[in-house]
Amino acid sequence: MAQLYVRNIRDAFGAEITGLDPRSDFDGETRRVLRQLFDQRGLLLFAGIDIDFEYQDKLCRMLIGDDGPGTAGQRDPIYVSNREPGGYAPYGRLMFHADMMWHPQPFQVLSLYAVNVEPGCATTTVASGTCAWELLPASLRARVDGHHALHSTGQVYSRGGDDLLRPEREHEESSIKPIAYRHPRTGKTILYVSQQMTREIVGLPHDESEELLQALFSHLYGPATAYEHTWRTGDLLVFDNIAMQHARGNVDLNGPTRTLRKVIAPIPKLSIERPRYTKPGEQKK
Ligand SMILES: [Fe+2]
User: Fold this and answer.
1) Is the pTM of this model over 0.70?
2) Which domains are delineated in the chain?
3) Cβ distance 83 to 116 under 8 Å?
């Protein structure tokens, strides 16, 4: 197998891996090691590697056991970018969330590859819901015991500020899940609420729900369970989209270039409405 070197990013989650050779196929031992690291650590960082769309797609699928032929050649890559024409989420700040948290079955792997980034561009922070559950104080654990939360598309703007990206969709989607959510692949328990997408704790009065959510957010997004990544061109972050959440600082259309190629796995079967964005300065208050 390729000689891989592993460094823990945080005590309980995250692994930086060096030694991966994108020019050769994954052998059996490399697959086993990377899958195990992904399930155990939730976040993999490969710094300064040169990979194309097909390789990124193959790596993401491999991590969840899909070694079949990819479809990267049949679709266009997605760019999260303030430069690329038609780039996703081209400006603004994003609060913590897991993509499609509002769907009964969110996709499992989310990867971002820095195609072209300039110094000073917004960082990405990844937080571990698995670690947050393991480290949750007993008093908070007792308060969420047996409770469910409602998650929906869009953002809860009252938790953010004027710099938030404001997506608009025709149709609002939502789902209800246990706050102590069992990961469908690893079986680990996750603290499953997010700043951006969780509307409320079902069955609690609004003020009590919001107060409890804020206490959970303070814990979930604290230094023991979050990692802030400063981008350099060639960095690849791959994380478990169910166990982990992500957020980013404010992106300015005229600020440093920030173009990240986003690849997910598996590809959702449903067609997801692409949001529209209002331009900075035209945002609703
Ligand atoms: Fe996202």
Assistant:
1) yes
2) 5-267 (3.60.130.10)
3) yes
